[in-house]
Design a protein that fits this description.
The chain is an alpha+beta fold and about 475 residues long. The chain has helices at about 10-20, 30-45, 115-130, 150-155, 225-240, 270-290, 315-330, 370-385, 410-420, 435-440, 465-485; strands at about 45-50, 55-60, 70-75, 100, 105-110, 140-145, 165-170, 175-180, 185-190, 195-210, 245-255, 265-270, 300-315, 330-335, 345-355, 360-370, 390-395, 425-430, 445-450, 455, 465. The chain is elongated, with a radius of gyration of 24 Å. It starts with 10 loop residues before the first helix and ends with a helix.
Length: about 475
């Protein structure tokens, strides 16, 4: 497809961003984008290094007038969340994203855009490809697999960052400077599947869709619907309404760090009276959800479709145990910060349920800016799994990033942001995992901030990037690099 960004400024940023959208780069499959970055470094005669987990750093000497300035690190991740609408046919391992301009926004056709964090990659490449006077030596760090576990940051080798200062370009709110983040863990439950069979029954599919979804850290406080939780309420009532209605399967959600937008339950029933009961309950819940989510998720939809026949379904006792587990698993904000007004301290996301190898895998993710609170919410989720006789797996997680409000780098970025935007920036922590948490653990004393242009609905096919904020963010970045001098 043609580049839709040819008339946008800064030209180099948008040119690189377009090239990046054409490179498949799902998490853990970043070989093509890393090869692109290696070729870039070679073509510009720039020093670069790859470490054993796949991260790459590209270094550039100072531009004219910046020879006596300290080296500054710029950093972002190269992988993207690959989500799509159900009716979109795309192979994220091989096909490019199709970006387009809609007014002042850049969007993608039915998929995530990958501006998280492709626009950060583009800005770093534009800096490496610049001759702007007054910019000192730069090292641009590109990490892998941020979205599914911070693998790149966690495995980063100690000689990959030489700078005293680091500017992370993975934020999504113009005019906000992030100086801290939550730590997190994933807690998974594995429930063996048992079946029973009998006389052939009719099949019906119940599908919850139309939700916004979003980032399980950044959007968790927005009271958006969780498709799995909504569907569970329907199935719970259906199983309690009639012994002849049975659950065949239930699945929903995709990634651990995305609020699930869609979920499907397949049920079977005996006769038309059963179907009418199912239909009435589904219609009742459609009205209930429309009322409950009229502000946060007005597009919520529940559909019901007849699908044929089956003589096999989930064992009744096992199905009831599964649905009760999904019902009781917490989701959403668990605690608000006592230090920062309107800031989420602790949350949990019921992210997905998938059938695999004769078991259900239920993935949840927990976040908190307090280590003790993170352990508490993990133990709560773990206890629910154990009561349902599910095997539990908890990953090692990642640390939080403790704010340093006295940082020289912060003051400089705040001053330049105010000049460009003509208003004071908001300085805050974020309720999402940033790689800066791991960098602060690996490189004590490293001063860091995180900035970025305005994005909405990241991690969903509604992801969009506000065009004018890209130039303003880039201007702030350039000004900071020209001013930093100690």
């Amino acid at each position: 497809m043609d580049n839709p960004f040819t008339n946008l400024e800064p030209h180099k940023v948008w040119q690189y961003f377009y090239e990046i959208t054409q490179i498949p780069r799902p998490s853990k499959k970043e070989d093509k984008i890393i090869a692109y970055l290696e070729n870039f470094a070679k073509s510009k005669n720039l020093e670069y290094k790859k470490d054993r987990v796949g991260n790459i750093v590209i270094r550039k000497p100072a531009n004219k007038g910046g020879e006596n300035k300290p080296m500054v690190a710029l950093q972002c991740h190269v992988d993207m969340v690959c989500e799509k609408n159900k009716d979109v046919d795309i192979d994220f391992l091989n096909d490019p994203i199709e970006p387009y301009i809609d007014g002042e926004w850049v969007k993608a056709k039915g998929t995530t855009l990958g501006a998280d964090d492709g626009i950060g990659v583009a800005m770093q490449l534009a800096i490496l490809d610049s001759d702007i006077e007054g910019i000192g030596p730069i090292e641009c760090l590109f990490t892998v697999d941020e979205e599914t576990g911070l693998t790149g940051a966690n495995g980063l080798e100690n000689d990959m960052i030489k700078s005293k200062y680091l500017i992370n370009l993975d934020s999504e709110d113009e005019g906000q400077i992030f100086i801290g983040c939550a730590g997190g863990k994933n807690t998974l439950g594995y429930l063996p599947i048992k079946y029973q069979s009998g006389q052939e029954k009719n099949i019906v599919e119940v599908f919850v869709s139309g939700l916004q979804g979003g980032h399980s850290g950044d959007d968790i406080e927005k009271k958006r619907g969780n498709a799995i939780k909504l569907l569970t309420r329907i199935v719970y009532d259906l199983l309690n309404s009639n012994e002849t209605i049975q659950l065949v399967n239930i699945e929903g959600g995709n990634l651990h760090n995305a609020i699930p937008r869609e979920a499907t339950a397949v049920l079977c029933y005996d006769n038309e009276d059963d179907y009418n009961k199912i239909k009435n309950i589904v219609e009742d819940f459609q009205n209930i959800f429309k009322t409950e989510l009229k502000i946060s998720d007005p597009g919520v939809k529940v559909t019901i479709t007849k699908k044929g026949n089956t003589n096999k379904w989930l064992d009744r006792e096992m199905a009831v145990r599964l649905i009760r587990l999904l019902y009781v698993l917490p989701h959403g904000v668990f605690a608000w910060s006592q230090d920062i007004p309107d800031f989420v301290e602790t949350s949990t996301n019921l992210a997905s349920i998938k059938k695999q190898n004769e078991q259900y895998i239920i993935t949840t993710s927990q976040r908190s800016s307090l280590e003790s609170a993170k352990e508490n919410i993990c133990n709560m989720v773990k206890s629910a799994f154990e009561l349902a006789q599910a095997r539990v797996e908890v990953n090692d997680g990642y640390p939080g990033w403790t704010p340093n409000p006295e940082s020289y780098l912060l003051k400089l970025v705040a001053d330049e942001t105010e000049k460009i935007l003509n208003k004071k920036p908001i300085i805050r922590a974020i309720h999402a995992g940033l790689e800066c948490g791991l960098f602060s653990e690996k490189f004590p004393g490293l001063e860091m901030v995180s900035i970025g242009p305005e994005m909405k609905s990241v991690h969903s096919p509604d992801e969009r990037l506000l065009i004018p904020t890209v130039k303003r963010t880039f201007d702030i970045l350039v000004n900071v690099l020209k001013k930093i001098d100690k």
